[in-house]
Amino acid sequence: MGMTAILAALVSGGVIGLILGLVGGGGSILAVPLLIYVVGVGSPHAAIGTAAVAVTVNALAGLVGHARAGRIKWRCAAVFAIAGMVGAALGAELGKAFDGKRLLILFGMLMIGVGLSMLRARRTADAPDVRLTRNSAAVLLPRLIPIGLGVGLAAGFFGIGGGFLIVPGLVLATAMPLRSAIGTSLVVVSALGLTTATSYAASGLVDWGVTALLVAGGVAGTIAGNALGRKLGNHKGLLEWGFAGVVIAVGGYVVASSI
């Protein structure tokens, strides 16, 4: 690997980590384009496998900070992750049978839709104390399971961690505040990423050298993202608008470049 490629991989890792630390998911959605266009990984499949490993490690690193701050709703995360893993397995099979270019156009349109839905004012108030208990299961499970399944399906279908879908999905299902959804989403990102990473690593589709550089850059980025997230925590609207804006912009780019 040349010096430029090493630097590109470190910087890309930093960007992915920063986004994971700041908004929970969404790192993997940028990881694949960064690996192909910036680092120069030749095969899209190798890019997906490499990104999956790096994103999983970075998500686990980010998880520690959120867990210490007590922002993770573990039971909600577990139900959402299990439903998501079932969806991801189904989605991956469907995705393989689809034309790559069409997949990207659909993917971009899905991102734009998700971004726009996040900009709509929420009708329900935040529920910071929401927990999955025997009493709340009747209300929460019928929301968590189908939404988790849907997010997993999309993640498997498009070969992404689905992080940018997990945060709005958790908010939609439980009305938990954005900061809690970000921390909780990292549990789901790790579970889904691990599923994808294991499958690709078994097929020899992971570039371990690039993975190591992405992780090194990512750890630094995650720390910065967590710190920035704490500062922006007081400006709640700013974080939500920023996240939605990034999702819409990347979605637009993906659609434009595929057409």
UniProtKB/TrEMBL annotation:
<dbReference type="GO" id="GO:0005886">
    <property type="term" value="C:plasma membrane"/>
</dbReference>
<dbReference type="InterPro" id="IPR051598">
    <property type="entry name" value="TSUP/Inactive_protease-like"/>
</dbReference>
<feature type="transmembrane region" description="Helical">
    <location>
        <begin position="6"/>
        <end position="39"/>
    </location>
</feature>
<comment type="similarity">
    <text>Belongs to the 4-toluene sulfonate uptake permease (TSUP) (TC 2.A.102) family.</text>
</comment>
<feature type="transmembrane region" description="Helical">
    <location>
        <begin position="238"/>
        <end position="256"/>
    </location>
</feature>
<dbReference type="InterPro" id="IPR002781">
    <property type="entry name" value="TM_pro_TauE-like"/>
</dbReference>
<keyword id="KW-1133">Transmembrane helix</keyword>
<keyword id="KW-0812">Transmembrane</keyword>
<feature type="transmembrane region" description="Helical">
    <location>
        <begin position="141"/>
        <end position="174"/>
    </location>
</feature>
<keyword id="KW-0472">Membrane</keyword>
<keyword id="KW-1003">Cell membrane</keyword>
<feature type="transmembrane region" description="Helical">
    <location>
        <begin position="208"/>
        <end position="229"/>
    </location>
</feature>
<protein>
    <recommendedName>
        <fullName>Probable membrane transporter protein</fullName>
    </recommendedName>
</protein>
<feature type="transmembrane region" description="Helical">
    <location>
        <begin position="46"/>
        <end position="66"/>
    </location>
</feature>
<feature type="transmembrane region" description="Helical">
    <location>
        <begin position="72"/>
        <end position="91"/>
    </location>
</feature>
<feature type="transmembrane region" description="Helical">
    <location>
        <begin position="103"/>
        <end position="121"/>
    </location>
</feature>
<dbReference type="Pfam" id="PF01925">
    <property type="entry name" value="TauE"/>
</dbReference>
<feature type="transmembrane region" description="Helical">
    <location>
        <begin position="181"/>
        <end position="202"/>
    </location>
</feature>
